Structures are given as C-alpha cells and as structure tokens.
Amino acid sequence: MKILVAIKQVPDTATQVKISGDPKAIETSGITWIISPYDEFAVEEALRIKEKRGQGDVVAVSLGPDRVKEALRSALAMGADRAVHVNDPALAGADTLLTARALAAVVKQESPALVICGRQAIDDDMGAVGAQLAELLGWPCASWIMEETVDADAKTVRVGRQVEGGLEVFDLPLPAVLSAQKGLNEPRYPTLKGIMGAKKKEIKDVKAADLALGDAAPQLTVTTLEALPPRPPGRIIQGEVKDAVKELVRALREDAKVI
Amino acid sequence: MAAMDFALTEQQQWIRKEVAALARSFPPEYWLERDRTATYPWEFVRAFGQAGWLGMIVPEAYGGSGLGVTEAALMLHEICAAGAGTTGCSPVHFYCFPPMPVIKHGAEALKQKYLPRVASGEIVMSFGVTEPNAGTDTSRIQTFARRDGDRFVVNGRKVWNTNARQATHILLLARTEPRDAHPGKPFRGMTLFFTEFDRARITVQEIEKLGRAAVDSNEIFIDGLEVPAENVVGEVGQGFYHLLDSLNPERVFTGIEAVGIGRAALARAVDYARERVVFDRPIGKNQAIAHPLAAAWARLEAAEMMCLKAAWLFDQGQPCGAESNAAKFLAAEAGFEACDAALQTHGGYGYAKEFHVERLWREVRLYKIAPVSQQMVLNHLSEHVLGLPRSY
After folding, report:
1. Mutating which of B13, B18, B280 best tests the A interface, going by the most A Cβ atoms within 10 A?
2. A222 inside domain
3. Interchain contact, A199 vs B53, CB within 8 Å
4. Is the residue at A223 inside a domain?
C-alpha cells in the first residue's frame, strides 16, 4: 500500500515572528524551520500503517524553496521511503488552492491509496489544503482525525473524529484524503540509523512544468501583514482591600465588561 | 587544499539538532526530580537507546553506527545544553569511551560477543580504573588478576566507580605482574578486562556526593572475581596502553559536557536577566550582570573549539594527548565560570532548586576534579608539552 504524506515546513513554535521590511512577509533570517507538528502526526501515522501491514511505501511531499529539503530529510529519517520536492520559484507565492493543485498533480503521478496531511499548518493556520486536494482529486476526505484503521484489503479506512462530547466514527472508501488532529499518535524521534540512512534515500525534484499546472498564479494574495497591537498595560488597584475589591468588581463589570 | 574548515558536516549538524530535540523532551523538572529522589534516569537512557544513539561509536559491523569521537562529543554537548547536566550525560557517555579499547584492541570473538549488546543499550557499563591507594598514579594500582588455567582470578578494590549499582559489565584494569617486573616500565604488566559485573564477587558501596545524586559513584570490593581469559582486552600486560584510547576521548567528552552545562546555565541566566525587573529596569541592562555572562559565552566558545579540535585529531588517528588535556582544562574552567555567573545573576533565586541553576552549578564542579584534576592536567602539559622537569 502506497501512502503519500503532504508536509509543510514552518517556523519553529518558539520563533518570535517579526514582519519584514516588505510588509507582506515575515523576517525569515534566524528562523529555525521544522515540520509543522500536525504534519508530523501524518508522517507518523503513515509509518504505523506501513509497519502494521508489514509492507508499503511512504512518500513524503512538500512544496517550497531549497530549505524544505531539510524537512523532507527529517521525514525520511523518521522512516519515509522517499520524497518529492516541488521546488519552483514560480510557485513561491502559492496560495492553498495552487498548493493543492500541485499536490494533486503529484498524487496523480504517484497514485497512492491514501493521502495524509496535518489538519492545518501552524504558520498561516489556513487549514484548507487537505480538503481542496480531496476535492481536486474527487476523493473522499475526513479531517481532524483522531484514529484510523485501514481494512485488510486496503479498500476502506475507518476513522474517528473528535466531536463535541464524543467520537464520530465512519468509513471511507480508498483512495481518500485524511487530515491529522493532535492525539492521533505520538510522533517518533528519528533514530541515528534513520538519520544516517536518510541521505541515501531519494528526494525527487519536481518543477511546475513537470506537473502541467498551466496558469500558476495564486488567486489569493497577501495584501499586508499587521502586527498585533501591543497589549495595554495592566492596572494595579491601590487602596484598602475593602475598597479595592469594590473597584475591581466595578472595573471588570463596567470597563472590561467581562462579568 | 582546503585546510582550516570549521564547518560541521550536514550529518553532524543533524545529529546535533535531533539529539537536542530528544534531550529537550525531558524538561528541567525531570532532572530536578531525579536529583531530589536519587533515581537513575532510566527513561532518558532508554529513549536514547531506542533511537540508536548509544551505539554511536560501535562499528556498523557490530550493530552500531560507526561514528567518531567528534559526533559523540556533539551528542554529549547537546544533552548537557538541554539542561540534563551530568545526570543525563554520564549514563550516555559510558557508551562512548569504555567500549573504545574493545573496539580498537579487542579480539574478534570478544567484539562479536559484547559490542552488539553495547550498541543496543542492553549492556550497562562501569569503568574500573581508579583505586584508593593510587589515584592518578595509575601504575600503582593494587588490584591483581592471577592467572589460573583458562581464567584469571581478580582481587582488589576500586573507587569512584560510576554506575556500579546499575552495571551489567565492567571494564577493569588490574595488574597481572608486579609493578617492578619490568624495571623502568611501571605501566607494563597491567591488563584490561571486559567482563560481567558479578555481584557475588563484587561488593558495591555508594559514596554520597555533592552533585549527580541520581547516578551513583561507588567504592567496589572485588573478592575472587573469575574472568575467562577470552575476556582480556588486547594483550596481557599491555592494558594501560590500550586504555589510553579511552582516556583521551574521556577528556574530550567530559570537557564538552562542561561546556554544555555552562551553556544551559547561561541560557537560563540570560532569560532571567532579560525578564527580572529591579529598580524599574531589567537587570540585564546592568553591565555588572551582562559582562560576566558575555565573558562566559566567549569562554565557552573557545573551550568548545578546543574540545572539537582534540576530537577531530583523535578521529584522524593523530596524537591528541596535549589537546585533549587542554580541552578538558579550559572547558572545566569555562563551564564552572558560566554556571557561577548564572547563579550570581539569579541572586537569591539562584540558590533555590526550582530555578535549576544550583543543580548545574553543583554538577559542573565535578569537571575540575574528574576525570583528572586541573592540577594534573597542568603537570601533564608542563612535562609533556613544555618539556619542563617533572616535579613528582
């Protein structure tokens, strides 16, 4: 069974994001890049499906500049068999739909039985690519899954989604697209042998032309990025406790309007 | 020709990154708890074993990864820089230098029997060289292995035997001939053994100490320990010389561990100096706070570079005694100064356990004493590098 995992390289969660001189982008110098954590769940789940079945092929795919190879190599070090890197300056400003179109073209070339991605990337939090990819392929899609079981014949997959107050369980015919929610699994750390073996695995470079994308213009363009307004300073209420409590209650009720 | 290349290879950078990620998944509170309850960090050691890190220097043919002292040094640095201190790195570094004489000088059968189990982490090592009556004067050790047919029978005692409470195996140095058997050659006549830690024949007595309560140091009493002759590492009578292949890496590793601990403390101090506001401004604005931290950073950088140079020389098969000793000396000073500056930066809170710096400060102090004291390093450099007459 072939499984394709779509991953995105994002700034590390500890990054202090700054807007760059160009107000449409963030300052990328000094950023540590990681695989988006939800996508790591996707890689882990694909590896577990392969291990459980005793055979299979896990292909990691990502879109982006040269630095993205590092994320793909991390997926290879975790255990993915090979990787596809869609690396083309023409796709530098890709929106979610264009990204999904590029991924759909890769999926058509690879013909996997299952595609897994994270529920959203933790940088722009759009959460659209998985569903758009399924739509473009005409495949069923289950998002934010907490558990999955592929049947023995690899014809269907049963998934569980967390919903208010419980778990929603349903079956999808394969091929399908799934997106991973936190709690699906605990991603493994790459082993030393995995790291050493990763450099021997193939990362295939793909250009927009190889994917026959035609018009590669994004439909969604970033106009501007604005920093959050600085948090207003806190207020310390002085005076006797008896009076201060009264003032606090008044301020919470009338100024902040929270009680 | 491309000389003077300070860049790490891509693989080395990656090793650093992944070790850091795994080590940092164990928060400071984990280490505080190990220290407080004096409990061995099994979870940590097993996590490193499962991910294959313990087999780093074991050749691939014996189930390891066949990497060098440089890579192992980078790993130990990241473990320490993650805040694990010597509590975290000691159990791991026992997979990095005690197996070295077996790898370099061991007979094929010995290597096949033990190295795969070292690489997997199944074997827990202890290192038995130092003795109460010999100290650094290794040729005067008294533990004696008497040949008896196809085996040796060992009697004696060792001190500062780390890990002995957990150990399954021990790398043991013993005399097989008296010290005066080869006039003028006191280091001959010692033999190295890699053998099972037979608790029926070895009694372990733990030593309470300043830091690293979780990882035991002990005095051990060996009474009639039987060691099969095939467990001799290398040649009978040449054990001390085989051991040298452990001792230089050990200096590099302990040196870079001290650097890592210094970096962990420095990072905490910098955060604290930035956030702690006294007299309406962060204390980091005061140069009396900032300069010791900046100086600590510079010293750590220099010490790390010396450690990596010594590691590189070892991996190139070149002599590295002077460099390994100098690296350990500089790193022990730099690590301690960084922890001390970090503790001072924290003021009263530096003395409090929950700020984690006091633990690092206690632990890093070890490196001025072990594996060899700063003074003995200077003796070595005076005599062997500067050519000055020996004073003792």
Report:
1. B18
2. no
3. no
4. no
